[in-house]
Write a structure and sequence with these properties.
The chain has 328 residues and is mainly β. 14% of the residues lie in helices and 35% in strands. The longest helix has 15 residues. It is globular and about 60 Å long.
């Protein structure tokens, strides 16, 4: 399908999902049954269940001229979810990329104290026994900041304005003597409705030296959200607190309806990036939340969640825009 057709179908399916009408089993079976799902439409009817996310993907090895596909991600293998996936596959004329990813959770948990401090290292809130990843350094109207996830250094993690951010994080034996920054602001997460980013900023105190490079790589820029479609199925990498430097494949973009468990609550996210691990190992593990995802020397995402073989990131351009910051 053309990318515009995938976007249009995605919108239609979410609009249908907001209605109270249930699909009859005849509507589902009219499109056949996907072999990977089994005969799942045994209930009397089905509606769009929670835990279904829709995005845009491109089959590996296919040229863009051969068409994009609707990415369908199931966080549950329930009969209702499988039946609905069958219906969606029919609506997309089988042009779907279907994966059962399981529950998606924040990736909470380079761990030593470093001088200078650079992206990819362990950080956390002073006094809160946890740790995540320092994403990048940035500047704004009021000075210099570090950027990570809300659930790492923001209110979701228990921060109030001025709360000290330490490097390494407390889980890695960091104390308030290891202070690096003070929590400044975050993009609030909505319990109802869709969120776009899990992002927060802390203002640097000047107590520690900083190095904005990613290992030996100088970030050249940030890819605009509407240009991410050109990177689908491309190789990406990140530096994280737990797994260090890893590589993966950008398997889907513009993923909507992603339910993510953060801080004991579940939030819906739209417009997300999905990264698939490589055969050589996992892309991310708990503690890598906040890492920047890069394509070469261009930044694309802010890593914040993961499932069994997939990781998820906010478009970094959107996060920085909402935080009113630019990369250092």
């Amino acid at each position: 399908m053309r990318v515009e057709s995938v976007r249009s179908l995605k919108r239609e399916l979410f609009e249908e999902g907001r209605s109270r009408d249930r699909l009859s089993v005849e509507q589902v079976l009219a499109f056949g049954v996907d072999r990977r799902l089994g005969r799942s439409a045994d209930a009397t009817s089905v509606r769009m269940p929670s835990g279904v996310s829709l995005g845009i993907s491109l089959p590996r090895g296919k040229a863009r001229a051969q068409g994009f596909r609707l990415a369908v991600r199931l966080q549950s293998g329930s009969p209702e979810a499988r039946a609905y996936a069958t219906y969606v596959a029919g609506r997309a004329a089988r042009e779907v990329d279907l994966e059962v990813v399981g529950p998606v959770r924040g990736l909470d948990a380079r761990r030593s104290k470093r001088d200078p401090v650079s992206p990819g290292l362990s950080i956390g809130l002073g006094g809160v026994v946890d740790a995540g990843t320092l994403g990048l350094f940035a500047t704004g109207a009021r000075g210099s900041f570090l950027v990570s996830c809300n659930h790492v250094i923001g209110p979701v993690a228990g921060a109030t304005r001025g709360h000290v951010v330490v490097q390494p994080g407390p889980r890695d034996q960091g104390t308030e003597q290891d202070g690096l920054a003070a929590f400044a602001h975050a993009v609030a997460l909505k319990a109802a409705g869709a969120n776009t980013v899990d992002a927060a900023a802390a203002q640097l105190t000047g107590a520690r030296r900083v190095d904005p490079t990613f290992g030996r790589v100088t970030m050249r820029g940030v890819v605009a959200a509407d240009a991410l479609i050109d990177l689908v199925q491309g190789r990406v990498w990140k530096l994280g607190r737990t797994t260090g430097k890893t590589q993966g494949t950008l398997s889907a973009v513009e993923l909507d309806g992603l339910g993510v468990s953060l801080g004991g609550a579940t939030y819906r996210f739209d417009g997300q990036l999905e990264i698939k691990e490589t055969p050589t190992g996992q892309f991310a593990l708990p503690g890598d939340s906040g890492a920047v995802v890069l394509s070469g020397d261009l930044a694309v995402g802010l890593l914040f969640a993961g499932a069994e073989t997939f990781s998820y990131a906010n478009p970094l351009a959107v996060a920085l825009d909402l935080l009113k910051l630019v990369p250092m």
